[in-house]
């Protein structure tokens, strides 16, 4: 574990990063107790308040938990799938919100990853996945549905498609794609969107998945990508002329 710190940079952040790397690499195992604050203070050559701040950073990321008492201390957390899933969404949202990622780049990433799920979804989809996709297509076709409701349904439809692939690793990695990238893209395109066009494309995807037509699902996703890019261009032009 790296213990040499750059005194010109945030010390607590560097300690947190060193401990996080040790956890992620397996040097410190799940449920293992971390060295005490005093021990970490000696190891890194910093004050205990600085160590305490570093531990707070790790706790905020759900990487460690603390326990009081004689057998207490800071322990490496056994992160649940749900917790990891939520963190993936949060991280992806922050990444897109604070960095200069243009719309075509985000769109390319989203659909390239989603299209990777389509063949598996067509092969492995269950009745529940199909029912979820059909329910969202029906919901999106309702005339009284709000913009917020339509966007939420859009996300739910693609979440069902991704989950239909039956691969939890892919579902985890696409959490940020579907539930972070997609809502941000919807914020840009919803004013230019023709709901009937989106509903028709979603219906094509659901039909292809139900009939186990991987190529058909891929073509529908490509068409949806092209339509999404067109919407972004239309919305940008509208803003520039407003």
Description:
The chain is mainly alpha-helical and 242 residues long. The chain has two domains: 11-76, Winged helix-like DNA-binding domain superfamily/Winged helix DNA-binding domain (Arc Repressor Mutant, subunit A, Orthogonal Bundle), CATH 1.10.10.10; 82-241, Four Helix Bundle (Hemerythrin (Met), subunit A), CATH 1.20.120.530. The protein contains eleven helices and two strands. The chain has helices spanning 11-25, 37-44, 48-60, 81-98, 103-124, 127-140, 147-163, 168-173, 175-189, 195-210, 214-241; strands spanning 64-67, 73-76. The chain has a two-stranded antiparallel sheet. The longest helix is centred in the last third of the chain and has 28 residues, at 214-241.
Summarize the structure.
With about 240 residues, the protein is mainly alpha-helical.
Any idea what the radius of gyration is?
Answer: 23 Å
What is the assigned CATH homologous superfamily of the largest domain?
GntR ligand-binding domain-like
Q: Roughly how many Å apart are the termini?
A: 55 Å
CATH structural fold name of the largest domain = Four Helix Bundle (Hemerythrin (Met), subunit A)
Q: In which order are the strands of the major sheet placed? A: 1-2
Structural class: mainly alpha
**Low-confidence segments, ≥5 residues, pLDDT <50?**
none
Q: Please give the share of residues in helix.
A: over 70%
Determine the strand fraction and express it as a percent band: under 5%
Overall spatial form: elongated
Order of helices and strands: HHHEEHHHHHHHH
């Amino acid at each position: 574990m790296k213990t040499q710190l750059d005194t010109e940079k945030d010390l607590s952040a560097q300690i947190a990063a060193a401990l996080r790397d040790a956890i992620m690499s397996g040097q410190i195992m799940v449920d293992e107790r971390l060295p005490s604050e005093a021990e970490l203070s000696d190891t890194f050559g910093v004050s205990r308040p600085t160590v305490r701040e570093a531990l707070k950073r790790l706790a905020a990321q759900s990487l460690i938990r603390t326990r009081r008492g004689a057998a207490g201390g800071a322990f490496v957390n056994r992160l649940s799938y749900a917790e990891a899933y939520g963190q993936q969404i949060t991280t992806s949202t922050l990444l897109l919100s604070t960095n200069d990622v243009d719309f075509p780049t985000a769109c390319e990433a989203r659909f390239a990853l989603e299209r990777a799920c389509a063949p598996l979804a067509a092969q492995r989809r269950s009745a529940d996945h199909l029912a979820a996709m059909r329910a969202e297509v029906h919901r999106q076709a309702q005339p009284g549905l709000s913009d917020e409701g339509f966007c939420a349904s859009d996300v739910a439809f693609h979440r069902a498609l991704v989950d239909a692939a039956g691969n939890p690793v892919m579902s985890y990695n696409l959490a940020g794609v579907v539930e972070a990238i997609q809502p941000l893209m919807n914020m840009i395109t919803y004013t230019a969107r023709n709901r009937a066009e989106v509903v028709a494309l979603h219906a094509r995807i659901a039909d292809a998945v139900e009939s186990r037509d991987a190529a058909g699902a891929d073509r529908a996703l490509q068409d949806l990508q092209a339509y999404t890019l067109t919407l972004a261009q239309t919305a940008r032009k509208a803003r520039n002329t407003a």
